[in-house]
Design goal:
With 596 residues, this protein is α/β, with parallel strands linked by helices. Helix content is 36%, strand content 19%. The longest helix has 23 residues, at 28-50.
């Protein structure tokens, strides 16, 4: 059994397609069989051709064995879907059907209905009727209805319908991929950061995740007892010596450590990286080395490492470990990134996971550290910000644990990008490594030493920053800010960067302003951000995050996504239409967590 097989233990959930039909026989049903089943096949083809699982393989769809005209056929489809590990449900129909008899009743599976916009049969009537039934029964479902009338017998999926089907399916698969996995807490609370108070009720009730816990002393045990693959360790250390450029030591001379200590730190942080990965997903090689229990791992799809301060006051910090795992490549080549939250900020880990599952790309973990107004930048550097940055920028910078994909050295259509691992070339991975240096850690922060990654994100990338916060009396709340990475002149960056810790990676971020609410100014974005951390994903994925949040019953407190892109269950509209944000809060409160 390979390590990657361990990683995707249990396989991937599938998308179930339910072709529903008018059950009246002797003419009506028979005339609709081909069109209805062809709709299902068309949707399955669309999804399989456009969506990928985290390992890069095409998403699999399962179509009911027959069209569904009544409750018996609905039950048969449900049985098949249970056998086939279906985690997302899409019902399609060109006609009137018997609503409560043909609907999907699985409460924990995200569901959508596409009602064909045609004049020959009342597909829109069924869509409205069954969505009403879903609302009445407390099973929120997404309604999909094309803008333009189609001709009878058409097998085409209109572009607007495609967009909604793909958006729903991406978010639905994210829900299904999380279910039954784990958040692995490596250590406990870091420096009083609330996000690292791991809430098992949140992960269980909202995301369907277990919470697993280990003490950081487990790293010491595995290092001292050699509970790791020694062959891989030697390979990894040799790769690091060639590919990880050690930068200058910025510590005061009196605090700088010896070459011997620095070399020991390299050995330790490489071992920490292998051990953290093995803790998350297991490693069959450990069983061969007579460590059968440790070989199993914790089935973790996301994790966090406390580090500060109980670990970092004595041992090398976790920055190298987190950076390598969060990147899409290591000594074993290009591969899917692991989601590891710095300082065990589990809430930032959760949104890192959201972004990763929606895009299959690495995520940047960062402090939302400083708001630089255009006036402040000009006063300090003499440079006038222009373009996307003209209204000010946010300095996103953490202690050196951000993914190396965040350098922007990968390209798509000739522009800087962060890509799914199967699109990343070895040359692009090497460019990311070449643009990253590893600075000996600031000993005043990290008494145990270690290394922090240092890079500067290329400008011009569309990015989405998000954050989950827990609010007593409400529960989880999501924040979203779409924007762009910004490239400053080198001297301007250096001047601003040296006012903080210049050994850490920087992303200059300009959120898109809408003139409303939190997005009237860049200052307001900073001022209303709910915590010290944020997760940054490539692309403008705010709409998908909103769709995902509604599936999980998590309200969105701020976003700058245009209203025509927002896609939530149809019943959300019954909670009021004048203030969509307020309706979102009421709907999420009314239906409660997905798994409660």
């Amino acid at each position: 059994m390979t390590q990657q097989h361990y990683r995707w233990n249990g396989g991937f959930p599938k998308i179930g397609i339910r072709p529903t039909i008018d059950g009246r026989r002797k003419g009506v049903r028979e005339s609709l069989e081909d069109q209805t089943m062809n709709m299902a096949k068309g949707v399955a083809k669309l999804l399989s051709e456009n969506l990928r699982y985290p390992d890069g393989s095409p998403v699999e769809c399962v179509i009911a064995d027959s069209t569904i005209g009544g409750v018996a056929e609905s039950a048969a489809a449900a049985s098949k879907f249970a056998r086939e590990n279906v985690g997302v449900s899409i019902t399609v129909t060109p006609c009137w059907c018997y609503g409560t008899e043909t609907m999907d009743m699985d409460a924990s599976v995200p569901k959508a209905v596409w009602g064909f916009n045609g004049t020959e049969r009342p597909g829109a009537v069924y869509l409205a009727a069954v969505l009403s039934a879903y609302a009445q029964k407390g099973l929120p479902a997404f309604g999909i209805y094309g803008n333009d009338v189609q001709d009878a017998g058409s097998t085409e999926v209109p572009e607007d319908v495609k967009g909604k089907l793909l958006g729903f399916a991406r978010a639905g698969l994210a829900v299904a991929l999380m279910k039954g996995k784990s958040y692995l807490s490596m250590g406990s609370v870091s420096m009083g950061i609330a996000g690292s108070i791991v809430s098992d009720s949140f992960f269980q009730e909202y995301l369907g995740l277990r919470t697993e816990y280990i003490d950081m002393s487990e790293f010491v045990r595995r290092i001292e007892e050699n509970i790791y693959d020694p062959v891989e360790y030697e390979k990894a250390l040799a790769w690091v010596k060639v590919n990880c450029i050690e930068g200058p030591d910025n510590n005061p001379e009196r605090l700088q450590t010896s070459r011997e200590k620095k070399d020991q730190d390299w050995e330790t942080v490489v071992k920490m990286t292998i051990i953290a990965r093995d803790l998350m997903i297991g490693n069959p090689r450990l069983a061969e080395l007579d460590f059968g229990e440790e070989a199993q791992g914790h089935n973790a799809i996301v994790s966090g490492f406390q580090g500060q301060r109980q670990w970092t006051d004595h041992f090398p910090n976790g920055d190298f470990m987190e950076t390598i795992l969060n990147s899409s490549f290591d000594w074993n080549g290009v591969r899917a990134p692991y989601m590891v939250a710095t300082e065990n900020d589990s809430l930032n880990g959760a949104v890192m996971l959201f972004g990763n599952l929606l895009t299959n790309t690495a995520q940047i973990f960062a402090d939302v550290r400083t708001y630089w107004s255009a006036d402040s930048v000009e006063r300090v550097t003499g440079h006038k910000l222009t373009g996307a940055a003209e209204n000010g920028i946010l300095h996103l910078i953490n202690s050196g644990s951000a993914t190396m994909d965040g350098t922007g050295e990968q390209t798509k259509n000739g522009k800087p990008a962060m890509k799914p691992f199967w699109e990343i070339s070895e040359e692009e991975a090497q460019k990311c490594l070449n643009e990253t240096s590893w600075r000996p850690a600031s000993v005043e922060y990290f008494r145990g030493g270690g290394y922090s990654s240092d890079f500067l994100t290329r400008g011009g990338m569309p990015l989405t920053m998000s954050r989950l916060n827990l609010v007593k009396g409400i529960g989880p709340v999501l924040q979203i800010a779409e924007g762009y990475s910004v490239e400053l002149p080198a001297d301007v960056h250096d001047t601003l960067d040296k006012r903080t810790d210049s050994t850490w990676p920087t992303t200059w971020f300009a959120p898109i302003l809408t003139g409303k609410g939190s997005f009237t100014s860049v200052y307001n974005v900073m001022d209303t951000w709910g915590a010290n951390h944020g997760s940054i994903s490539f692309g403008h994925i705010g709409a998908d995050l909103i769709t995902l949040a509604s599936m999980l019953r998590i309200p969105v407190s701020m976003h700058n996504v245009s209203e025509d892109q927002v896609f939530r269950p149809r019943v959300w509209g019954l909670f009021g239409t004048d203030n969509a944000e307020s309706a979102d809060y009421r709907a999420c409160s009314n239906f409660g967590p997905l798994y409660k």
